[in-house]
Amino acid sequence: MKHTAIVPSVGRMALSLVLLVCLLASCAVYTPPRPQMTNVVNPASLPGAVRTAEWDIGAMRYVWQGQGINYNEAGLLPVLLLVNNHSGRYPVIYAEECRGIGAGGAEYPPYAMEQAAEVVFASTAYKKSAEAAIVGGLTGAAVGAGLGALIGSGFNHGWGAGPGALIGAGAGALGGAALSQRPSMEQYRASLYQEMATYAWRPAPIAPGALVPGYLYFPINAGIHSVRVVLRVDNQAQTFIVPVSNPAW
């Protein structure tokens, strides 16, 4: 008598899912996941922080950590702005109203996101970084260890598993297989743009009890040592001069 093997329905479903994941992964497009902010330390711990009864404001300069593109060599000085709201109000800070203060008191507006990206893309540092990524294949550290490294390392790994996993790492088998593929120049460019946009300061109301980080992008040769921040709340404007601190590690 011929016996027919009976595969349990659960087993068949699991097998089908595995095959589907493998199939999708083989043709997946490189799409780095968007990192989610969780917790960072209080800006009041920075030596140059502004501390008030309602909020603490700090600023820290970007320092290249040895992986990914060096934004300083690419013509940018990213300054990480941190605001801790311990009031019951909802303040807002607009990047375009901030000013970097350089030598002799000269003031510089931060680049708009598109301008900052164009400065980077026109640099020799970007071209070298992109060529290295194309030749060697892009890893999680190649992109995620850029701007996110300052927050991840300096602030108790505020995005969880660390900067290499933030933008570069995939979610599960599908993401891992997709990201193991060698990217094109266009994909690498899009990845850097996504990194810069993701970590940029956003003009959203800061909720009571929230601690919000975000980058302001200034020209590297301006000698920025402080940031003038305009905080708006309840139809009022408060202006603060915040010294730019070195990384706190």
TrEMBL record:
<protein>
    <recommendedName>
        <fullName>Glycine zipper domain-containing protein</fullName>
    </recommendedName>
</protein>
